[in-house]
Specification:
Largest sheet of chain B: 6 strands, mixed
Helix content of chain A: over 70%
Structural class of chain B: alpha/beta
Number of strands of chain B: 13
Largest sheet of chain A: none
Number of domains of chain A: 1
Shape of chain B: elongated
Distance between the termini of chain A: 40 Å
Order of helices and strands of chain A: HHHHHHHHHHHH
Strand content of chain B: 25-35%
Strand content of chain A: under 5%
Radius of gyration of chain B: 22 Å
Largest interface: A-B, 29 and 47 residues
Order of helices and strands of chain B: EEEHEHEHHHEHEHEEHEEEHEH
Number of helices of chain A: 12
Oligomer: heterodimer
Radius of gyration of chain A: 19 Å
Number of strands of chain A: 0
Amino acid sequence: MNPLLAFQLRRVGRNKQYLFFTVLLPALFTIFITKIIGGQMGDAAGYDEVAASVMVSMMAYGALGAALGATIRISFDRASGWLRQLRITPVPQTQVFAVDVAVGAILALPSLVVVALVGRFVNGVQLGTGTWAVLVGVLWAGSIAFVALGLLIGLSLEEKAAGGAIGILGTMLAALGGLWWPVEMFPEPMQVLAWFTPSYWYAEMGRDVAAGTAPALLPVVALTAFTAVFAALAVTVARRRPLHAVSG
Amino acid sequence: MTSPPALDITGLTVRYGDTLAVDGLDLTIPSGQTVALLGANGAGKSSVVNAVLGLLNPAAGSVGILGRTPADAVRAGCVGAMLQHGGLPSEARVGEVLDLVRRSFPTRWPLDDLVVTAGIDGLLERSVDALSGGQRQRVLLALALAGAPPLLLLDEPTSAMDVEGRRAFWTTMRGLADAGHTVVFATHHLDEADAVADRVVVVAAGRVVADGSTAQVKARVTGRTISFTAAPDRRLESLPAVTGVARHGGTVTVATTDADATLRALLADGGLPDLEVRGATLEDAVLSLISTGHTHPIGAVR
């Protein structure tokens, strides 16, 4: 494995918060929300629908939280001077950037898998073997949108603001994007707001797959557009903000 | 064909907005020299270091490291640096960071020797977050040395060290020079330049104002300063042995090469309220070097 990638993964692995917020919390939510809302459904079909929908939402919530958490941390490395230090070693800058993208993507996977396992074995969600694989695959691929967003935020904000943004951004994207309760339960203007969040389209993609169809074109195009914009802005910020610090 | 110099800076100019930090600086350092970049805070030393490493884009001028551009030299592992604001990653052990950096260089300083040279014995298993200021500084030095690069660039390497740590560090740097490394370090301590460097380059207002052996530069700066309270219209520049005059409110500081002669003239000229005479600090020396209007650097340019 690339030494820098191994190094970065080891660092994140030491962070216990990551495990709690991006794996354990979504898994617990999956169980509770399904029990509460699904339990109110009169029939088994209604319960099954809720169970699948909640599971997809929580997979999306966990993955986007993990992707954001792993990447916004680049702000800490900038503040500590570590990015500057790396810059004066022979490690190419493109590799430093690529490794952060890879770390964000890799960390999104455990949340997806654990929540899917909870959905299947605790809540009894029934999908075909192929559908499970496609569901995890599609949501994993889509998590790149939040890797790009996290890098953009992490490169743009100062250390303290970035630290706050990790929690706030994940919560806002989940709430407005309809991951904690269905968008249909929102008042009309809020439903429109959801269309402007990448998290909404991300979960829509997953719901299409869970329903046994291929993702519709609109969610895919919308999420791709968000990713492209976030990535382009992140690259621009990375080029613009100097890494030097001068006091003498 | 002669090999290119370790460092070749031509007409380097660095601006931050309207502020001119480095003003057309020229400096050539042959391989194997140990050079102190001496100057007060804000003199432009760090800007020079950052420009040499390619961390900032100069407004004008060029930098060559062993005949390469800064970016190429860094990629090729030709240069190791200790930055004033370099940092270590959180949630990592010292040994892991050192290993990562060592492996990125084409050549590697043997680990056992590196640990002894940088003075980080017993720290490899330590978490970076648990290091003291002086220990961090030594770990950063170890990172600069990790690839045994031909050119070492150290920006105020001893700023977070106590006296003992500083002396140990000087010994290390002399050892590096003896081993054939080109060492360039920025400092604002004259004694540090004196203890380590075989060439001193004094930087003020982004220009080289003196360049020579330590003995040559020291001879320039062993003047004294006389401070007292004086009316703003009192003429002082033409007094005997005066090399510079600075005014801060009512207080006047006069740099002189012959305190005796200057004092005699001052007394003949009127009173000297709040008189204070002291050996010149580096700031005073640099002040005198600028205000006497040297257009050519003193000392032998090598």
